[in-house]
């Protein structure tokens, strides 16, 4: 039986899992409504703060509230990040094959292997949140993500990269002018030594992941190619909009640091891509929401030889 229709995918870093910073506000009902309105089949999540507590009650509440998805998350580890990542999937569409947690020094990567029902194709769905304070660790985490695509595997990654796209000539916003950034800790976290001794914006994860074609940056693909070579006629320029921070003013202007990546066979199925940064989204999080729509039949076609 041929699979038809759309596959809807969301990636969102929800600040403090919607619980707010002052200890009294609770934005969880609002962010559940936002997600539910998109009717996603796959949700990549970052910052599942406290979602492990009380038998993962927050995790299951969210999955149930946005449409009865099946949620998975990594285990928080004392002394490391206590804001794990997760993936939620629609079990009416997918059957589970394998769940893998790639343990790394700061934050684990969650890697689900699924199979669309009625298809023989396996998909790896990975959620990642690269280290916010160590550019070298981010490079290591990015190299770990490259291994998922080995042996012609089909992979989709939703991530907060905490770093910048390397094709700066194609981006809608310029990289930060670090002489104007007031937060000097952020400056140390997001820059690396340049060729002339000066510090420059860290674009290494983007280059490692997409520089030689292992993955396609789907936002960049939508914003530069989609609709220009026989694809959709939709205006996709907004696909390159900045994603974070939507609130901090001392870290420079917002940048496109949240990405959905896919192996080339995933990219060819992309129909449209949106960066959603409405006032309601900003109320919930300091990150925009990413929304991608794929043609399911194309997605399930065998991956070509790479």
Characterization of the model:
By secondary structure, the chain is an alpha+beta fold. It has a single domain (6-299), classed as Endonuclease/exonuclease/phosphatase (Deoxyribonuclease I, Chain A), CATH 3.60.10.10. The chain is 23% helix and 26% strand. It contains nine helices and 14 strands. The strands form three sheets. It has a six-stranded mixed β-sheet. Strands 5-6-7-8-12-11 form a six-stranded mixed β-sheet. The chain has a two-stranded antiparallel ribbon with strand order 9-10. A hairpin with a 5-residue loop joins strand 9 and strand 10. The longest helix has 13 residues, at 53-65. The chain is globular. The chain starts with 5 loop residues before the first strand and ends in a 7-residue tail after the last helix. Residues 229-233 have low confidence and may be disordered. InterPro entries: Endo/exonu/phosph_ase_sf (IPR036691). This is Endonuclease/Exonuclease/phosphatase family protein.
Please name the defining characteristics of this protein.
306 residues, alpha+beta, Deoxyribonuclease I, Chain A, six-stranded mixed β-sheet, 26% strand, globular
């Amino acid at each position: 039986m041929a699979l038809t229709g759309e596959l809807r995918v969301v990636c969102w870093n929800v600040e403090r899992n919607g619980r707010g910073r002052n200890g009294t506000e609770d934005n969880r009902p609002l962010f559940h409504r936002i997600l539910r309105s998109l009717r996603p089949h796959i949700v990549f999540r970052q910052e599942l703060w406290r979602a492990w507590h009380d038998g993962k009650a927050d995790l299951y509440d969210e999955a149930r509230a946005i449409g009865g998805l099946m949620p998975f998350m990594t285990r928080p580890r004392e002394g490391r990040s206590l804001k794990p990542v997760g993936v939620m999937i629609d079990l009416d569409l997918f059957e589970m094959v394998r769940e893998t947690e790639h343990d790394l020094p700061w934050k684990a990567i969650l890697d689900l292997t699924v199979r669309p029902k009625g298809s023989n194709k396996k998909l790896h769905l990975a959620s990642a949140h690269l280290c916010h304070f160590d550019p070298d660790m981010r490079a290591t985490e990015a190299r770990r993500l490259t291994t998922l695509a080995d042996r012609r595997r089909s992979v989709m990654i939703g991530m907060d990269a905490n770093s910048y796209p390397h094709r700066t000539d194609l981006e809608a916003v310029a990289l930060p002018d670090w002489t104007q950034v007031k937060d000097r800790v952020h400056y140390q976290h997001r820059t690396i030594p340049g060729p002339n001794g000066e510090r420059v914006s860290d674009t290494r994860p983007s280059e490692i992941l997409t520089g030689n074609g292992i993955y396609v940056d789907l936002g960049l693909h939508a914003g530069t190619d989609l609709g220009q070579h026989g694809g959709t006629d939709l205006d996709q320029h907004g696909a390159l909009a900045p994603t974070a921070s939507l609130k901090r003013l001392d870290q420079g202007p917002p940048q496109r640091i949240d990405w959905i990546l896919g192996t080339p066979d995933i990219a060819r199925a992309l129909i449209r891509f949106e960066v959603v940064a409405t006032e309601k989204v900003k109320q919930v999080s300091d990150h925009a929401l990413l929304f991608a729509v794929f043609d399911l039949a194309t997605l399930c076609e065998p991956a070509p030889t790479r």
